[in-house]
Amino acid sequence: MQARPDLILALALTTQLGPAVAAERISSGQRLYATCAACHGTNGAGSGTALPVLAGQPKDALAKSLRDFKAGTRPATVMHQIAKGYTEEQIEQIAAYLAMQK
Fold first, then answer.
1. Torsion-angle region of 24 (φ positive above 0: left; ψ -120 to 50: alpha; else: beta)
2. Class of the 5-100 domain?
3. For residue 59, how many other CB atoms are within 10 A of its CB?
4. Using the 8-state DSSP alphabet, how is residue 86 labeled?
């Protein structure tokens, strides 16, 4: 069984803060991004030099990149497969979350 970072984070916050506060503190974009952290680093800060830092990039640019991956118009190794699983609303949420990171 593989660990789910989004569930681990939610459980940790729920334990520390109580369910109502934890739900407020974790945005939809943050929950969705949790599955990206293994490659793109915590909060989009990057992990190594192989991938670009996503944190703080403009929301529109991030959303466009995800849409291009989803459409197959931007070259990728696995991102085109991953992006196909996101709805338009989820793409916007992820992009908004990353744009707010430092």
1. alpha
2. mainly alpha
3. 16
4. -
The structure's pTM equals 0.73
Element (H, E) at 72: none
pLDDT tens digits for range 24-74? 567 899 999 998 988 899 889 887 777 889 999 999 999 999 999 999 999
Token reading at 8 = 């681990």
Query: In angstroms, rounded to a whole number, what is the distance separating the alpha carbons of residues 79 and 89?
Result: 17
Give CB contacts under 8 A, 24+ apart, made by 52-58.
54/98, 54/101, 55/98, 55/101, 55/102, 56/98, 56/99, 56/101, 56/102, 57/98, 57/99, 58/99
- Helix H, strand E, coil C: the string for 22-66 is HHHHCCHHHHHHCCCHHHHCHHHCCCCCCCCCCCCCCHHHHHHHH
| Rg (the chain; Cα; Å) | 14
